[in-house]
Amino acid sequence: MYKWILPSLSEVLNDSQSTAAVCSSAKAQQQWRISLAATEQLLLKNLATISANVKQGLVLAAPAPVFSHSQLTQSLQSITFTAQPFNPLALMPFQMPEGEVAIANVTAPNESILPLLKTDPLATEQFCLVFTDKFRLVLVLAEENDGKKAFLFSFDPEVAQQAWRALGARVMLSNPDLFAELEDLVQKYHPTTPDYRTIMQFSQLLLAELPEEKPNEATAAQLDQEKFSPNSPNPPSSHSPSSRSDVELLQAFAHEVRTPLTTIRTITRLLLKQRSLPASVIQRLKIIDRECTEQIDRMELLFRAAELETSATDKPTNTQLTAMCLEQVLQASIPRWQEAANRRNLTLDVILPQNLPTVVSNPAMLDRVLTGLMENFTRSLPAGSHIQVQVIPAGDQLKLQLLPQPQSGDSGTVTTSTCTPPIRKALGQLLTFQPETGTISLNLAATKHLFQAIGGKLIVRERPQYGEVLTIFLPLEAEEKKESSKLKIKKT
Question: For residue 104, is pLDDT > 50?
């Protein structure tokens, strides 16, 4: 029987007797995802500084980049291995201008891509190798001979070195001129036995990411009673086997869509670095890049919503909440919202206070959740509509409100006809479908859970002449609350 001469990463970890689990595909995929989430948090907690000019680690991954947090993309050098039929390196194999590295930058200044042969067994594996001054970590998701999935990981620096040798040998065969540069990058983070506290920290983060066990029948019955209680504003999920299958299917769907889109965006951004392309081609590539980014962010929200639903608790746990400057988020988001509104023949005005207070939320998720909400909101409005976004301090909270305005008639007068709410049909536990527009989006309950997870609250009200009015409340940072209280006292 034919056998590939170079070992795959799963073979490297199996030979080293690293931590492994062979189970159903859905379970192994879940272990892979939560381990990546724990690794991301571990890196964020251990990076000394955040600077695009100071690299603090190297990440080798396949078949797509595994970390999207802005702090990590700035501070880590990332190399993505892919077996896609189109080899992006063929676009500019060794014609880089002097002073630029030989590895082609792709998704960001710190991200690059290298090819794998389609016949290579490694091309069927998902993996992530992390090299830092404090630790080396290998994560692998592979398929066993019996068809079952296996998830393996190891903090052993020697195992990480063997995994790099397996990868490096492939680079040597396909791109020998690049091997020396990659070898230097890997060896820059010399192998050291990780501090036991680092592994303990990873274990704690891993446990924090794990969904809780399904409630027993008695608990499920209790949850069903609470589900319809008027005093329960955030009804929990019953987590029946069918609903869990629905959520797992959505998780798998989001992952499968996100992966090829990330590859398309990677190749698109590589093409955009070509200086000889006509302006019309560049414009079209930018449109592809934008559309891919929007859909990747949508899939990320679907994935995150599915993760929240796998928890058996009646309220999602608020994680990674910190004081943050909302002004920075809005400055980056508002131009995108206006551009998206213009594409749908809508107008959008934003009214902000002179000084935006500091709020407490999740910096990595707030922009995505707000943009996702704006996306769904604009898709539900007819062409020609006007949207007003108001940001107003409200006691110890900040209120962000989305108000659809009455449409103007041909003579410029405001029409007062009743606004018909969009038809929404349920698709499983988390999604809704709008037949008029063909739009699939998160349902209201799932969207509310997302806002709860980032420390906020979403309220939706119907107004006959306007349509839906969406109001988001975000808590103020402690010092801002004190100032707000002082103002109230002075007023009285």
Answer: no
Phi, psi (deg, nearest 5) at residue 141 = -120, 120
- Say if residue 490's pLDDT is above 70: no
Could you tell me if 423 and 354 lie in one domain?
yes
User: β-strands 76-82, 347-351: how paired?
Assistant: unpaired
pLDDT by residue (tens digit) across 342-360?
Answer: 888 899 999 998 888 889 9
Supply 442's token pair: 């998160």
Number of domains in the chain: 3
Q: Which of 384, 283, 301, 373 has the alpha carbon at shortest distance from 336?
A: 373
SS3 at position 439: strand
User: Is there a single domain that holds both residue 271 and residue 145?
Assistant: no
Q: What is d(CA 103, CA 99) in angstroms, rounded to the nearest whole number?
A: 12
Domain hosting residue 264, numbered range:
236-309
Q: Cα–Cα distance between 200 and 221 in angstroms, integer? A: 37
Residue for token pair 């609250």: 457
Which whole-number Å values give the CA distances from 51 to 41, 70, 352, in the listed order? 17, 11, 30
* Domain assignment present for 104: yes
pLDDT of residue 223: 36
Give the model's pLDDT for residue 437. 67
Do residues 110 and 77 make contact, with C-beta atoms less than 8 angstroms apart? Answer: yes
Q: How far is CA 356 from CA 120, 373, 387, 401, in A?
A: 54, 21, 21, 15
Q: Is 289 left (phi over 0), alpha (psi -120 to 50) or beta?
A: alpha
Summarize the confidence of residues 329-348 as an average pLDDT. Answer: 88
Cα separation, 394 vs 408, in Å, equals 31
Q: What is the DSSP letter of 48?
A: S
What is the rounded CA–CA span in Å between residue 258 and residue 300? 8
Nearest Cα residue to 260 out of 84, 50, 95, 396 = 84
Q: Dihedral sign, CA of 471, 477, 478, 482?
A: negative
